[in-house]
User: What shape does this take?
Amino acid sequence: MSDINTNIIEVDKLTKSFADFQAVKGISFSVKRGEVFGILGPNGAGKTTTLETMETLQKPTSGKITIDGLDTLSHQEQVKKIIGVQLQSAGFYPELTLIDLLNLFASLYGVKVSPTEILKQVDLLDKAKSYPVRLSGGQRQRFSIALTLINTPKIIFLDEPTTGLDPQARIHLWEMIEKINKRGVTIVLTTHYMEEAQKLCQRVAIMDSGKIVALDTPDNLIKQLLKKGFKKKIEVKQADLEDVFIDLTGRNLREE
Amino acid sequence: MKNNSNLLNQWRAFWAITWYSLRAQTRNMATFFFGFLFPVVFISIFGLIGNSATQVNIGVPNNTDINNPIITTLKKISIVKLTFAKKSYLDKQISLGKIDAQLVVERSTNLANYKVMVLTGNANIQNEQIVRTIVTEVVDKTNLALSGVSNNLPIDLTFMTTSSRQQRYIDFALPGMIGFSLLSTAIFGTVFGLIFLKKTLVIKRMFATPMHPLIFLTAQGTSRLIIVLIQTVLILLIGVFVFKFYLPNGLITFLELILLSIFGLIAFLGFGYFMAGLTNDENAANPMINLVTLPQFLLSGTFFPISSLPNWLTPIANNLPLSYFNTAIRNITTNAEPFSSTFPYLLGLFIWSAVMYILAAKTFKWE
Assistant: This one.
């Protein structure tokens, strides 16, 4: 089961309907142990719903999800113990410090952690006694990731982790995600930044209106497109505006 | 084995949420203002209202010779307040009802006798009578003294005082204040607190952990219970030590009040959970909260007794949840009745809260 090539997540014919519309329309895919798997798609494509059904936060209308061999419906609690969850734009208790919050979540998982050790991993040691409102956007996202590490999960789900961040903070977060992945943690993330998917993900699923329209490695997806005779209208430059921006402003984080 | 460790983990989760919500609440200014400062300010005001004693104001024009036995004796009477001022000013004050009387003392031409003239205003008939009685008594006694017949009078008069408990406003208002702060904390705190945590997805994030959802609600309630107990103890301590609030059986009554507060909070929390579960929007919650709390603050005998309400309103007022609580708590304080006298009211409170908890369970929305 711990074989590197086995699938850690199996999603089989998943559908999820709400009162007035069907958000996910019968999708199947699997995530390999140890990979960074991206779910791409425009807003409203069903990315978050797919993620939340895997996280056991929403019940599938039909279909089956297996996580590390556990059915998410019948083994909700065991699944929760082995996953780390970062929600899109989630807040925190405003009156609790980062250390308080880490201790609180450790108790919710029934584990003991060293809050300072975890904060060090996400470069937030100097903010240990700060309140969440005092954090910048990038720091807040890093802290959300710190909370996902508490129960030393096998899989981490990140829902649009870099939305709203400046380029420096985004690069910093990518490095952090890669570092966590190198320790053998499987990562499933959603994004609508193609550059991010290309940089981080071994494989990506592209979703549109509740369906998966493509699933492969970024390279293969590009090759398939080129095979169809696709040509970029403008000539490929050796650098783009982002490169200019980073060159001028540096890679260093801008945080108070 | 596995079940045991699971139970233990849920227990740990329960205490962690209780402890950290308590910490969050103590760091929140709203808790401090509504939970502690308001009740303390209120009972301080109520405490002072009850203590204002009767006083009569008598003006003395400053052309009066004040070195005479009448003025000297009046000065020594505690409920008389003498104001020395110009005649024209005193005339105006008396017509405005600000002083009760004017007193002029003149020496007669032979210098041995005095002439006392009293002009009373009729704005306050009670005070007018008091002025007349006091001045008459002072003049009579002085007359007797000046005539040298103060001893061996044919009629001997003795006044005696027995200790009787003064029913003061604080004794009525303080129990109401406990009810008021219980209901405020249970409803305002719970509804706005939970809606905030729902809206910011804090609850959702917690549900991604193995914690059971009910653990979250019970722990939230427990942390409010602790806050409320601190509030109640604080209100009682200030009441008892600063304003001499009456506890018929001392410490036992004190403990009974704590017990009642626990019942009260658990009952009122039902209302809080029900309303917090209905909506995700503070603006929608606001009118709902006011609809539930305002009539109770006004009709449940918090600031004035239910018996002073119009007759048609009393059957409704008597059966409001806060009325049950207030009546129960006054039974064991103001009325000095045994704890068992509160049972019918606790039953009423229980029925209200059972209905609320059932409604909450049926309608609660986590998102």
